[in-house]
């Protein structure tokens, strides 16, 4: 499959990104003043890299607005956790409310962005992140479907490849779908992808060229103008 672009290389890092570098990149891309939900897994790391100047309000579906970074050491309060049961801090002005009210925020279109993990994302932005059909797995969609359909933008954080080396960006999802056409950006260790009705555009790559990335991903890739700097930069 050939790369559908004559653009110069989009590579902005000499090596693939680690989890923290990826979280830092996602945090940097969140617009100031946004209301954001961070899903379980990799997305929870994003809270550690948001700055005070961004004025981001974090929502967690177990009933809190104004969540701060992950709690460490003496900061830990076992009654103050996020939806993934990770101890977190609270920021000035934080509020707490009933689970039903929290879901009303999600379903009512009040979140600007949610950041979720995924098993698969299709070329047109379909999301599969709650069940693979693996023996012994407990299927539990939780609030993911509410976030996927209720947030104005859905960002996905994941490794590009499975443990078997298969791409998680696919032409069509083979796992049960959480939301249809909802994903706008996919952040992976090997690149950032923009998805939608017109297919997949690569914003930047990490540790590989666009041509090498195309060999890993079974859908046509188009290049966006290369304007980014190394994501590890402060």
UniProtKB/TrEMBL annotation:
Enzyme nomenclature, EC number: 2.8.3.6
UniProtKB keywords: Transferase
Gene Ontology MF terms: 3-oxoadipate CoA-transferase activity
Record-linked InterPro entries: 3-oxoacid_CoA-transf_B, CoA_trans_fam_I, NagB/RpiA_transferase-like
Pfam family, any one: CoA_trans
Domain of life (superkingdom): Bacteria
Family: Belongs to the 3-oxoacid CoA-transferase subunit B family.
NCBIfam families reported for this sequence: pcaJ_scoB_fam
Annotated protein name in UniProt: 3-oxoadipate CoA-transferase beta subunit
């Amino acid at each position: 499959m050939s790369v559908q672009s004559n653009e110069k290389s989009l590579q902005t890092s000499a090596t693939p990104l680690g989890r923290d570098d990826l979280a830092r990149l996602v945090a940097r891309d969140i617009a100031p003043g946004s209301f954001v939900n961070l899903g379980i897994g990799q997305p929870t790391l994003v809270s550690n890299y948001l700055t005070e100047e961004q004025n981001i309000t974090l929502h967690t579906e177990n009933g809190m607005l104004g969540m701060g970074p992950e709690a460490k050491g003496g900061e830990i309060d076992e009654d103050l956790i996020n939806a993934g049961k990770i101890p977190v801090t609270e920021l000035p002005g934080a509020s707490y409310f009933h689970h039903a009210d929290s879901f009303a925020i999600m379903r009512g279109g009040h979140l600007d962005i949610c950041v979720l993990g995924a098993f698969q994302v299709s070329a047109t932005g379909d999301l599969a992140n709650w069940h693979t059909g693996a023996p012994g797995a407990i299927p539990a969609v939780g609030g993911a479907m509410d976030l996927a359909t209720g947030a104005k933008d859905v960002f996905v954080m994941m490794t590009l490849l499975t443990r078997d080396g298969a791409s998680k960006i696919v032409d069509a999802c083979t796992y049960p779908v959480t939301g249809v056409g909802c994903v706008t950006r996919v952040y992976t260790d090997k690149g950032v992808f923009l998805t939608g009705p017109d297919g997949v555009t690569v914003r930047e790559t990490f540790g590989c060229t666009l041509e090498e990335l195309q060999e890993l991903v079974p859908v046509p890739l188009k290049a966006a103008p290369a304007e980014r700097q190394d994501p590890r930069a402060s």
